[in-house]
Every structure is written in structure tokens, then in C-alpha cells.
Sequence to fold (344 residues):
Amino acid sequence: MNKINWGIMGLGNIADKVCESFSKVNNCTLKGIASKNKNNLNLFKKKFNIEDKFCFDNYKDLILNTNIDIVYIALPNSFHAKYIAECIENKKKVLVEKPAVINFKEFKNIKKVITQNEIYFTEGFVYRYLPYLLKLKEIIISRSLGDVIEIKSNFNSRIYKQKEIFGFKIRKPDYSNRLFNKDLGGGSILDLGCYPLSFSTFVNSLTHNVQLKDISLENIKKEYCESGVDIFSSAKINFNGKFKSNITCSFKDEFNQSTEINFENGSILINESWVPNKKMTIQITNQGNKTTMNFENSENIYSYQIDNISSQLLDQKIKPVFPSLTIEEIETNSDLLDRWINFE
Fold:
């Protein structure tokens, strides 16, 4: 069986989870790794049994290596655009960790490069590959619950450090964490808000298909920390009056990844929208009758994404197909994220 050879650029926490996922799939291999941090490079090399000749202390050599079919970019957000362009210009397929870019200007630049080179490129939202979302898509398209009229979706994750001062426990931002660093593309909107926003535009694509020019943002609220990044935000996405989506993201509130979709004749509640446990449920209410659907996920949810994209490449897809995000979907999400972040 032919296999797709992957290279991973940037060896942080997410990269570690993605690297572990390769042991769960059969159609691909983790071939190469690259990091400017030599300690991380050695740790990943030993943990995942990577050959010396495929361990690089710079990103250029990984990109140029002819044994690597696709590069997964897991660098801090502010480096995404640079290395997406460098990969594409060197005919290397790309999966970039969300968010693909930190502003819409960056997106327009990489879109030109991708369009000119016609090579596979997509953005990593792992929830799109989960079993529950595939079933959810079926339900929405069937219109068994009628039209979508409202979404409420959250991604809150308390990532403050807890300190004890004079016997009092106080939670404060950890400014050594890249998430609180504006220069690295930190902030709750880019790190967490992109999930409920992308989910909202996905539902729109299945239902009303309101065009980007007709989508507006309303009722935006934000809270910032001392480093200048947003630590909380909420917004309402108005899909031209067809339906609205109320979304929130937070670094300071209790963990919450719930999504509720309200239809004309019922609702769907997803308690673990983005990073579910091995066993999860969605609750469906149809004209007052409640049903629970159970789903069992792989121990490593990233295996769904790696397996699916590898299958697409083995099928010689030049452009991503569902559940992967297309360049048009990434454009919509990048534009709306940019508007959300820069709203004053």
C-alpha cells in the first residue's frame, strides 16, 4: 500500500498530539520533523523514532526534502503565512494549524500563491473530521428539523496561572505563554473564537448559503489583558437576517465547549463540540420529543484528520474536499475573524 509521508514544522503541544495520531492510521507515515529548539527536536526524534536524516533544525530543509509529501505547520500563529507561502512555492502540500492566518491581508497574499501553484492546502480544525459532525451534516441537510434560526456556541478555557499571594489564590495571565503574546498572534479570538465562528459558517454553507458580503458582525464585546491581547470576546454573526449565531470565547472562564442549534421544529445540543472525550453524545429535540445519539471517538481525535487528508492525497486531490476546509471557506472565516478582532 502506498503511504503519504508527513513532515511536521514546530514541535509544541499540538504537534505532540498529532505525532501520536500516526500510530492509529495505516495510510501515512510521520517521516520528518523540524524545530529550531534542539531539545524539542531530540525529544520528538526519540519518542516517535524519526531517522536522523529527517530531523531538521531549520524549516527550509524540511520543505525542500523530496521524501516529504505534505507539511503540517504547527508554529505560532504569526509564522503561519510565511511558511505556508514558502511551502507552496516549493510545491509542498500544506495542512496548517488553525487559525491559518492572523489577518485578512495575510490571507489575500497566500491565496495568490496557492492559486498560482494549484497545490493542496487546508486548515486544521479537527472537529470537522469527528463522527458527530458527519451525522450532524446529514440531519441539517435533511431539513427534518426545519430551517436553522439560531446558533449559540462557546469555547471557553481557563488558562490563567494560579498564584497564592498572602494566602489568597489568584488567577492571572501567564505572560510567558504565547497565547498572551500579541506579536505571536495570541488572544482568545484567534485561538478559541475561530472554532464557533467556523462552525457557524459551516452551518450557513449547508442551509441558507449567505454570501460573505452579506454577513455582518454585531454586539461585539471584548476584554483585554495587560499584554494587549483579548482574553474574552462575544459577538453575534448575522447571516443577512436568515439566522444569527451568538458566539463567545474566553481564556478566563470555566471550560465550556457547548453548541446549541435551534431550528424551526426543534434543536440540537452538543456539549463537547471541539475536543470531545472518547464517548460523547448529542441531544436532539424534535417537536418536543428528545433523542440522544451516542458517538465513540478514537483515543486520539487527530487521527481522523491525518487519515482523511492522507486518503485525499492518495486519491490525488489537488483541492481539499469535505470535511477539509476549502480555500473559499478559509477566506470567509479569515475575513470574519479579522473584522471581529479589529472591531472598535
